[in-house]
TrEMBL record:
This is Glycosyltransferase. Pfam families: Glycos_transf_1. The lineage of its organism: Bacteria, Pseudomonadati, Bacteroidota, Sphingobacteriia, Sphingobacteriales. InterPro entries: Glyco_trans_1, Glycosyltransferase_grp1. GO terms for molecular function: glycosyltransferase activity. Gene3D superfamilies: Glycogen Phosphorylase B. PANTHER family: SULFOQUINOVOSYL TRANSFERASE SQD2. Signal peptide: none annotated. Keywords: Transferase. Residues 198-353 form the Glycosyl transferase family domain.
Amino acid sequence: MQKLAIIITHPIQYYAPVFKLLHQRQNISIRVFYTWGEAAQQKFDPGFGKNISWDLPLLEGYPYEWVENIAADPGSHHSKGIDNPGLVAQINAWQPNAILVYGWFYKSHLKVLRHFKNKIPVIFRGDSTLLDDTGGLKGLLKSIFLKWVYSHVNYALYTGANNKAYFKKYGLKEEQLYFAPHAVDNDRFGIARADEANELRKSLGIGPNEKLVLFAGKLESKKEPALLLQAFAEINIPGTQLLFTGNGILEIELKNRVSLCNNVHFVEFQNQQYMPVIYQACDLFCLPSKGPGETWGLAVNEAMACGKAILIADKVGAGTDLVKEGQNGSIFKAGDLTDLKSKLKTLLETEKTTLFTMGQHSGQIIADWSFTKQVQAIEQLTDKCRKTVRR
């Protein structure tokens, strides 16, 4: 059986189920190497401003190893935060046939790409896009560097159209690219939690016939919650409500701006087990991010798996693949208040039944963006590595 070593910083709710499914299917043998080290289990998330410990079992059902991290300031917030002198030896001791590396930004991950080039096949997974590119001299230097980085990669698993365009710009050829869709646990988010969702709306004073717009995520500048608040306030449509779920540096400012409003609500960060209830309580999910760095926006997948209409900015990487204008939602120009107000007004002036129908379309679209599809791509690519490159 082919042996695939997987290099990733820490347990992540969007990838641990993929590793578990790969192990369960037994088409390939996997071992995950967590490079942040064991301390990653209780990590401080600066975006939410608190320690985050997910309420899902992220380490069950697949083999993994912690890798000693000697970084003075360990973490994924800077390139030197992942420093594992023993990583290459630890990988070699397991004797894999191929390596899958998540992200090159970290000191040790880049070292793995360089060390194993032309020794065993190296597969790369990342979700960067060209949406934030500004060109100029900085862009030229970036291009030279990234072409060098990806020259160490045999294949890349791309998440969607924008990510594929990025890999092609920086030197990877069509035959090196395999589609492995960004995914969430569609089944878990799709389980009906109507009673709890209705109870949440009732607790916030939101009537059954009112339309609820949801923002869920970090309250930070990159995600533009303030722009959404301004647009919602200025269009001022009766029978509509806005809910912010999450924490972050803009939290106090946003709350101060709406202190006298009774149709804008705030709920603190909610863990994964309860998030389906939050999504299912709304009629329209909005992610107004301007970036940089909103490479995909997996909250869009989550909202779609809950059967919701979608309104997002064109800087959100998922938009090209997941949002079909007028069918399951709309896309507005990032940072453009006028465009956001126009699209939001159009959606909120439709009947609730129309938003419901859009949400059903969302559910149909997202069904193909699954963990199973991602796992199949990894298995097929690992098998291709066996056929094309030998140690």
